[in-house]
Amino acid sequence: DTGVSQNPRHKITKRGQNVTFRCDPISEHNRLYWYRQTLGQGPEFLTYFQNEAQLEKSRLLSDRFSAERPKGSFSTLEIQRTEQGDSAMYLCASSYAYRNRRYHTFGSGTRLTVV
Amino acid sequence: AQSVTQLGSHVSVSEGALVLLRCNYSSSVPPYLFWYVQYPNQGLQLLLKYTTGATLVKGINGFEAEFKKSETSFHLTKPSAHMSDAAEYFCAVSVRNSGYSTLTFGKGTMLLVSP
User: Can you tell me the distance from the alpha carbon of B79 to that of B69, in angstroms, rounded to the nearest whole number?
Assistant: First the structure.
């Protein structure tokens, strides 16, 4: 168990550019979640997958955001035409699907700064 | 919809003193409750969880929390603070409506420990 891995750890981009983050979950976990955390706030849910199916999306996930989980393994989160308001820590988590074992294990996050 | 309120954005204690971090939740259905800890520029680590059964739950690093349904509370305590406990603490809830899938977090409480 190597934990949840996120890359890159930090990303600085200019407003209007596209960015993509990657998350590698714990291999036995079939659920994968994305959260966003802004300064001084708790994490906010964005979306989650069970295997390759995207089961739920938050209203926070605007049209500029897209997440994929091909083959039910790693996941990517892409933000198109970034805005300064997108600056945040993007956290990935994974869990088992079985209800009593849906405890999120979080990665270290990707910190995005839009300048 | 469910929500979490953490009273006090900052709590200061002396090393060796009692730690008490407050969390109240709002949910119309039985919740699962969690406490996570976050160190600077890191992801979240699960401290403890309540799902069903015993209302007093023990976690890692000497922390414990008690689920009080009548008070809709899940306060986190530790008898004796250590310098290494200085971090941000988040209370979170998940509910049956969402299949206990996603977490709703409070805004967090920063614990400061002085020598």
Answer: 23
Task: Write down the H helix ranges in B10-50.
Answer: none
* Residues whose CB falls within 8 Å of the CB of residue A1, separated by 6 or more in sequence, listed in order: A26, A27, A28
Size of chain B in residues: 115
Task: Please tell me if residue B105 touches chain A, with a CB cutoff of 8 Å.
Answer: yes
**pLDDT tens profile B38-69:** 998 788 999 999 988 889 999 999 999 999 99
Given pLDDT bands bounded at 50, 70 and 90, which one contains residue A1? Answer: low
Q: How far is A2 from chain B (nearest CA, A)?
A: 14
- Name the residue in chain B with its Cα closest to that of A38: B107
Q: Which residues, in sequence order, are bridge partners of residue A112?
A: A11, A88
Closest by CA to A108, choosing from A92, A88, A86, A95, is A92
Give yes or no for a contact between A34 and A78, defined as CB atoms under 8 angstroms apart. no
Task: Check: CB of residue B22 under 8 Å from CB of residue B7.
Answer: yes
Judge whether A55 is closer than 8 Å to chain B, CB to CB.
yes
Quote the DSSP letter at residue A97.
S
- Non-local CB neighbours of B62 within 8 Å, separated by 6+ positions: B78, B79, B80
